[in-house]
Amino acid sequence: MPQGQPVTVPDDNLTTRQRRNRPLLIVHTGDGKGKSTAAFGLALRGWNQGFDIGVFQFVKSAKWRIGEQTVLERLGALHAETGEGGPVQWHKMGSGWSWSRKAGDESDHAAAAVEGWREIQRRLAAQTHDLYVLDEFTYPIAWGWIDVDDVVATLAQRPGRQHVIVTGRRADPKLVEIAELVTEMGKVKHPMDAGQKGQRGIEW
């Protein structure tokens, strides 16, 4: 893409504006660090453009509060107070989705994942958000908790102009196939390989 220009212009009978404004399905996958970080960076960029942001974390414990959550929720509060940017909602899995507050253990996670996915489907149908971050969503798909064909059909047929970002390792090939933007992050080195644990400000 030299100087931000596409390499080819498809014969799709769309204007440049129509083509530019098409909603994107974005997948961040691979074994390297930074998949979620990049997705939250896009959420910050979208917030600045006034997007309604919805973040849905599928694996991290509800008790673990990452730094990006604090920042985005404060930006959501700023929007409520001043109108700047856009609204932000953040929902986490673990001890239960934040709208249900159900207690649970490992045996309940599959059902909770399906419940969370159904809520996202309802929001997509209602065009609730402009940008959805489905963080670590590849895992419940890979574990067979959520049907990949249902995911592909829902995302491919979503109405309006709703951008969706999916993160996680080993993204299903069916999801990769329908995505417009796929980035595979490869690990070259990681401090954990040398026995160093995650540190504040880098991992959370």
TrEMBL record:
<dbReference type="InterPro" id="IPR027417">
    <property type="entry name" value="P-loop_NTPase"/>
</dbReference>
<dbReference type="GO" id="GO:0005524">
    <property type="term" value="F:ATP binding"/>
</dbReference>
<dbReference type="GO" id="GO:0009236">
    <property type="term" value="P:cobalamin biosynthetic process"/>
</dbReference>
<protein>
    <submittedName>
        <fullName>Cob(I)yrinic acid a,c-diamide adenosyltransferase</fullName>
    </submittedName>
</protein>
<dbReference type="Pfam" id="PF02572">
    <property type="entry name" value="CobA_CobO_BtuR"/>
</dbReference>
<dbReference type="InterPro" id="IPR003724">
    <property type="entry name" value="CblAdoTrfase_CobA"/>
</dbReference>
<feature type="region of interest" description="Disordered">
    <location>
        <begin position="1"/>
        <end position="20"/>
    </location>
</feature>
<keyword id="KW-0808">Transferase</keyword>
<dbReference type="GO" id="GO:0008817">
    <property type="term" value="F:corrinoid adenosyltransferase activity"/>
</dbReference>
